[in-house]
Structure formats: structure tokens, C-alpha cells
Amino acid sequence: MGNLHNRVAIISGAGSGLGRAASISFAAAGAEVVLLGRRLSKLEETAALVKAKSQKEALILQTDVAEEQQVQDTVAAVIEHFGRIDILLNNAAVFESGTVLELTSEEWQNQIATNLTGPFLLTKAVLPAMRKAKYGRIINITSGLSWSGAGGYAAYSAAKAGLESLTRTLAGEEHEHGILANLYNPGTLRSEMHATGKDPAVVTPDLIRLASLPAGGPTGTIVSYG
């Protein structure tokens, strides 16, 4: 599935769903994993599973990715602990319904903050370390709602469309620094956001492949499950 031996991977939204599954799989592939999320108890559950599956101790950093100072402090703590950052998986998300007419400004801002501003803040914070190392692999989780125009999820859909544009821009800006940025669409996963769907573990091999791309590998692309 790819070798992440001794790579340092930050995973947002690591307390459940895809973030939890990715944390376990990345550690099993050899990575040192950093778990980000707002709910400490959920992060501790993930860390226990990481240790059970890989014998590795995950670094837990309770973080709201929409809060710039928290993000900056978190990234500084990772660099202090490990000395570098190799992989960033922007997975944290808020998925709430609401049409353009129904959404309040606050509801709109809350979803944009986590789903788009959060990945921007984390990416901006890790780039100096990645540029210094001339190596980085950034994976942003997207959704078919970014382009399908399905009604009822205006803020989420807009945020994911923005994230796709941001990723392509990032790929162009950072390629010369050895940093690859790609999007991954896992489809519908069974999680706290969806009662039905695939087991998140089935898509983690794709994430490991994106996290272990060789120098000169694809960047600015969208990979979809299946």
C-alpha cells in the first residue's frame, strides 16, 4: 500500500470516521501520526486503536482547525516534537443541510470555517517546514457535492468547491518546492455524518498511495474511490 516509514503525518478530524481509519492505517504503514480534533475523548479513542494496531504512540493535539492561533500553536508543537512535517491530511469537516434561502449567515460561516478556512490555515502553517525539507504531501478530502449541484447543502458544497480550487492553486505554487497537493473523493462513508455507506477503512489504501507519492508525482489532481 506504500511505505510511510518514519514520515510524520498530521490528520485533522482524527476522532472518528475517515480520520480515525486513516490514522490507524498511516501508523500501520510506518508513519508517526498526529491526531487533531476538537473532542479530546474521541482523539484518545483513536490513539488507543492506533497503538493496538501498530504499537505506535500517536501525538494528540486538541485543535479547532478554524482557529488560526490554535493551528499555529499545534503546528509549532509538532515541529518541536518531531522536527518536521511530511504529510497533511485535511479531513476535518462539518456536514449540515441548508438551502441558500434557509441558511443563516452564522450557519454558512461555521461550515466555511471548518471545511475551507481550516484546510487553508493548516496548509499555510505547515508549508514553511515542508519547503525547508523540500518535501510534502498534502491531501484534501473533497466530495461530489462540489460539482453536482445537488440541493440542500449549499455551504458544504461551496466549501468543497473552494477547497478544490485552493488545492489546484497550491499544487501550482508548491510543485517547485517538492510539495504535492491532491484531492481525494472517498464517496459516501459510514460515519457520524452518514448512517450508511462504506467502511472508511476500505479507502485508506488510496490515501496511503497519495501520501507516499514519489518526487515528481501527480499534483493538483482528484482521485476518487473505485
TrEMBL record:
EC number(s) recorded for this UniProt protein: 1.1.1.100
GO biological process: bile acid metabolic process; fatty acid elongation
Keyword Oxidoreductase: yes
UniProt keyword terms in alphabetical order: Oxidoreductase
SUPFAM superfamilies linked: NAD(P)-binding Rossmann-fold domains
Domain Ketoreductase: 7-187
Cited Pfam families: adh_short (PF00106)
Single annotated GO MF: 3-oxoacyl-[acyl-carrier-protein] reductase (NADPH) activity
InterPro entries, A to Z: KR_dom (IPR057326), NAD(P)-bd_dom_sf (IPR036291), Sc_DH/Rdtase_CS (IPR020904), SDR_fam (IPR002347)
Chain segments annotated as coiled-coil in the UniProt record: none
SMART domains assigned: PKS_KR (SM00822)
The family this protein is said to belong to: Belongs to the short-chain dehydrogenases/reductases (SDR) family.
Protein name: 3-oxoacyl-[acyl-carrier protein] reductase
Origin species: Paenibacillus endophyticus
